[in-house]
Amino acid sequence: MSEDSKCEVCQNPAEHRCGSCHDAHYCCKEHQKIDWKNHKRNCRPFKVHSNDILGRHIKATKGINPGDIILQENPLIWGPAQTTVPVCLGCCRAINENNSKPCSKCGWPMCSSLCEKAPCHIPECRYTVLRGDKISIRNFGITHPSYSCITVLRILYQKQFLPEIWKKIKQLQSHHEERKGTQKYEQERLQIAQFILKFFKLDGVFSEEEIMRVCGIVTVNSHEVPLTEPHHIAIYDKTSMFEHNCRANCSKTFSSHGGIIITAGTRIKKGDNLSICYTDPLWGTANRRHHLKESKFFWCHCSRCLDPTESGTFFSALRCQDSNCKGYLLPKTFIDNTTNDKGFDWYCDKCPSILSSYSVQDLLDRIGKDLSEMPKGDIRECKSFINTYEELLHPNHFYLIDVKLALLQLIGNVNDVNELKEIDDEDLELNLKLCQNLIALVRNLVPGEKRIRGLLLFKLHAAVAEAGRRKASPDIVYASLMEAKKILQEAVDLLKHEPIELVEGKLYKQAVANLKELELVIQTIHMAMGDIASPM
Ligand SMILES: C[S@@+](CC[C@H](N)C(=O)[O-])C[C@H]1O[C@@H](n2cnc3c(N)ncnc32)[C@H](O)[C@@H]1O
Fold it and tell me: Which intervals hold domain MYND-type (predicted)?
């Protein structure tokens, strides 16, 4: 018990604390019971810790089941991304000269009078009014530099007028010293800090150093929120404490109103660190690690980065170049904490072959170039890329997975089961195989990830149902539909927190509808098969 722990109910010295969040203190069990109704709204199954490597981070204070909501919170601050076309500063959606009107006070173009009055618009509106001249935005549809300062300005406003929010924001990591001297730092100094000081005439109110620290806080802590087009960014309080892991045990999504929802992606034990993935989990190890170093200023040492085989998936592996060998090449480690790209040699797991890091890089660059130049949306191109490069890469290699996912979208680009009726048996078989292989890979590589797996399971249920439908025997049809139902139920569970604004949210809605339809069909077949008892 700390010296000043006081009972939430009577303010007397407290000996007990909430076993879940460890935040609320009580003098006795009786008072803890009395306070539960009140406390349960704030009680969370984790506690913030701190150490030299991670800074602040979060540990579970009790066991958490997959799918459980761990945290839901609204942003401390939100605003346009740093690089953006002109957007309405009330709702952050793209605008043009025809669907916007300048704010009557400050001149920033807004999409409606409602947005003009939005509380989030107050900071830039006030600072623009105070400078004495309205702003005039004339170029729409292209990146506009004036917008890069808005989110930073909104944070600075908290410092001046809303100290409670500022207190939370200023504690966030900025990596200010490490950022100094980088190209991005210099660009932001000119484009954001100098713009704020000169255009808004705020010299004397804020210093350049202070503005640059805020720029660092935005870089390190903001989340891209894909609910608007273009996406906007937001900073959350407790969510900012979640550490990164390339095989994270938590998964994030957003509510329709821009709140963030963190759910458990895997079973979590009391005392486990809670993590989300700051980068694209379907990038190769070298790319993920460099991206994290560049954007978040740390070298990742998670279990996935430490294991070159990435849980035995061989997600970054090349085929051995000896035509008689069936082995795969990988480096002994990817942990090269330098940016000089010298790298390590790659060794075959079956024969003594070695490939220099230079040759590997050259090969990967060539394949990457081919991939980026490949015409999009063409099934034949995807198949040909896979055929060509399965000769050189492990079938689970990230380049092939990228194209396999694209191919699956093309041949299985369906929102309901019936659309698969149009494809031939060969493509249906390919569709099934792709779904099964990709699901197995994702389950193993990133077990806490939900969106990709939910999407793949949705596709798989449609393919399984269609494959069953093509069989003559009612028994097989029935068994296939039962299997499709089980798969779809899993997709529904994974996608249930996705907002309707996102593809995954729409898919969830479709999955729920399909599930109902499937249940009816199964029931009808079951009855027709002569058994009246309900299968469900
Ligand atoms: C969003 S913040 C997380 C909260 C932060 N630790 C704090 O004290 O405010 C991101 C920063 O945390 C640190 N961090 C997060 N995950 C890490 C990891 N897996 N390894 C090392 N540092 C990490 C890095 O400094 C990173 O830039």
Answer: 7-43
- Separation of 53 CA from ligand 1 center, angstroms? 8
For residue 518, report the distance from its CA to the centre of ligand 1, in Å: 45
- Check pocket membership of 28 for ligand 1, CB cut-off 6 A: no
Q: Cα–Cα distance between 322 and 96 in angstroms, integer?
A: 58
The tens digit of pLDDT for each residue in 282-314 reads 999 999 999 999 999 999 999 999 999 999 999
Q: pLDDT class for 1, splitting at 50, 70, 90?
A: very low
Residue 296 near ligand 1, beta carbon < 6 Å: yes
**Element spanning 79, H or E:** strand 77-80
Measured by CA distance, the residue closest to atom 21 of ligand 1 is 54
Atom of ligand 1 nearest to the CA of 175: 27
CATH number (3.90.650.10, 2.170.270.10, 3.40.50.1240, 3.40.309.10) of 238-296 reads: 2.170.270.10
Give the span between the Cα atoms of 482 and 399, in whole angstroms: 34
Nearest CA to ligand 1 atom 4: 241
Nearest 5°: phi and psi at 65?
A: -85, 150
pTM recorded for the entire structure: 0.92
* Cα gap 434→457, rounded to integer Å: 11
Nearest atom of ligand 1 to the alpha carbon of 243: 16
User: Residue 50 burial by CB count (10 A; 0-12/13-18/19+): exposed, middle or buried?
Assistant: exposed
For residue 294, the one-letter residue type is E
